[in-house]
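TASK: fixed-backbone design
INPUT:
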């Protein structure tokens, strides 16, 4: 398949390992104890071998074998990718460069826990071509970190940020979680003060969600921890937005702020529905309207590749209606919004109503675009739901 040069090509690599499981986490991640005997099939030391097998399958697939586009973004996510030795991550990036080629200005990101890196590993990653690192800080409050069952202390993050700067990383992101039970407004403000003082160029901030089946959900159910409060979460979002914007960060997606030029290009690729190949257990891919996803369990994924089999669990074709829905769902979360032409004719009254309520920018509508206001961002999910077919 020959894809249009106007569509960027990215690669996502899912690394499913964590040293321990946080109480709120329902991601497709595994500790050594959770893998158990399957660690003989796949481990932190062997993951790269299977990832390279899948990369080879991708290169020779009907989707990419005649595709001359270089990869513009690479994202190692998890889990905790830096649980894999830095030399192995570097080897995997080299395999991507060899098989696909990287664009001259390629963005290469890895997620990391602050306590999963050291100076040596960061230098190794930077030398290999990694340009961006995203640290899971969550909060500068020790009591909040305890509720979240995070393994690091607040200062660990800032040591890691300083080490990443010294190693030469061009871009550094910090992830935050707000509205955790027990967090105060002052806790959040101190966290933001620390982020701003660390002089990073990107912040992702998410309201705590209690996911079914997690330890946190069980604690809430038993009354040991109060459930997050929506009104408190909305106020905390305002605090995040006001404090970051005052420090020179602009919001470019509902949960993401960046200094000029610091936007995450890989995530932007998702939000604009470009093409990406997902490598790893449970990883999702999208190529020109076709989506597929891999076997979720690491051992199942690895065994399929070992046998020369496709690791894909299932797939779907996104029809025209589905593509229209996704354009609205994804595009409305962005600062640029979407053209009014993306919306169905029968939602015109709702658009006018949302504008009258101050949830959509009137000036943008007059220019033919639908853009959330600051108030609209607080109700983004509801607005988007009402504007999709």
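OUTPUT:
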């Amino acid at each position: 398949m020959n894809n249009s040069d106007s569509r960027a090509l990215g690669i996502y690599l899912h690394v499913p390992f964590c040293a321990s499981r946080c109480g709120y986490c329902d991601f497709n991640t595994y500790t050594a104890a959770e893998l158990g005997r399957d660690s003989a099939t796949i481990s932190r030391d062997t993951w790269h071998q299977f990832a390279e097998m899948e990369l080879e399958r991708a290169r020779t697939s009907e989707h990419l074998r005649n595709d001359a586009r270089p990869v513009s973004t690479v994202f190692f996510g998890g889990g905790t990718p830096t649980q894999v030795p830095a030399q192995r991550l570097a080897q995997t990036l080299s395999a991507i460069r060899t098989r696909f080629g990287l664009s001259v200005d390629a963005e290469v990101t890895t997620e990391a826990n602050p306590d999963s890196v050291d100076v040596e590993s960061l230098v190794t990653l930077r030398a290999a071509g990694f340009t961006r690192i995203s640290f899971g800080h969550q909060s500068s409050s020790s009591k909040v970190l305890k509720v979240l069952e995070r393994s690091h202390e607040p200062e660990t993050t800032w040591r890691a940020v300083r080490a990443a700067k010294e190693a030469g990383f061009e871009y550094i992101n910090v992830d935050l979680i707000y509205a955790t039970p027990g967090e105060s407004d002052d806790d959040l403000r101190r966290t933001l003060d620390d982020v701003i003082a660390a002089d990073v160029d990107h912040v992702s901030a998410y309201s705590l969600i209690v996911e079914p089946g997690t330890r946190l959900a069980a604690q809430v159910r038993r009354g040991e921890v109060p459930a997050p409060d929506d009104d408190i979460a909305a106020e905390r979002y305002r605090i995040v937005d006001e404090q970051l914007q005052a420090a020179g960060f602009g919001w470019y997606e509902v949960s993401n702020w960046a200094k000029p030029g610091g936007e995450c290009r890989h995530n932007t690729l998702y939000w604009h529905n470009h093409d990406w190949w997902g490598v790893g257990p449970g990883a999702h891919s999208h190529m020109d309207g076709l989506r597929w996803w891999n076997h979720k369990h690491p051992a199942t994924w690895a065994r399929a590749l070992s046998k020369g089999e496709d690791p894909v669990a299932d797939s779907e074709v996104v029809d025209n209606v589905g593509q229209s829905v996704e354009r609205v769902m994804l595009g409305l979360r962005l600062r640029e919004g979407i053209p009014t032409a993306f919306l169905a004719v029968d939602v015109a009254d709702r658009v006018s109503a949302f504008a009258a309520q101050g949830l959509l920018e009137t000036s943008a509508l007059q220019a033919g675009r639908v853009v959330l206001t600051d108030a609209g961002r607080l109700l983004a999910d509801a607005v988007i739901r009402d504007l999709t077919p």
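COMMENT: The chain has a mean pLDDT of 95.
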